[in-house]
Amino acid sequence: MIAETVCSAVSVAGLGIAAVTAYRKRFLAAARIAAYSLVPIGLVMTGVIGWLADTAFSPTAWAGFVVLGGAWLLFMITRTVERRSGVTRKERKAAKAATQRDAMAPAASAPSLGQGAGTVARPAAKPRATGSGDDFSDIEAILKKHGI
């Protein structure tokens, strides 16, 4: 009951400020203030304020928040322990790739294993331009223009 009264008073005060602002010919600011001042009364009318009040004074809700906090804390502890175990991401990826290779059938052909046991696929080298001296001519011209 008190929350609804406070929200109503805040809305009325905000609408009063919006009226004074509109009287000063600042209509855009007045409209914005009026929009903000209507939010608390809208929350009361939709029942959000009542729900928040019921949640704030409910022991079951607070127990739920404690359980969520404990789950978050447990998650963060496991991540910290995992990172401090000394195993790097590359080592984990290599171990995963090794287990996937070992999971293949013994008679599997080499192409079915991908690129091979320890090789990494590399893109083909791009051909270099023959006139590499011309690549920096624009830059040199700009630098000379500025006296550098």
Layout of helices and strands:
Layout: H1 2-23, H2 27-46, H3 48-56, H4 59-84, H5 89-102, H6 137-145
Helix pairs in contact: 1-2
| Gap from first CA to last CA | 75 Å
Secondary-structure element sequence? HHHHHH
The largest β sheet comes out as: none
Spans of at least 5 consecutive residues with low confidence: none
Oligomer: single chain
- Helix run count: 6
Shape: flat
From the alpha carbons, calculate the radius of gyration and give it in angstroms.
34 Å
Q: How many strand elements?
A: 0
In short:
The chain is mainly alpha-helical and 148 residues long. The protein has helices at 2-23, 27-46, 48-56, 59-84, 89-102, 137-145.
Overview of this protein structure:
It is a single chain. It is built from six helices and no strands. The protein is 68% helix and 0% strand. The radius of gyration is 34 Å and the shape is flat. With 148 residues, it is mostly helical. It starts with a helix and ends with a helix.
Describe this protein with a few key phrases.
148 residues; mainly alpha; 0% strand
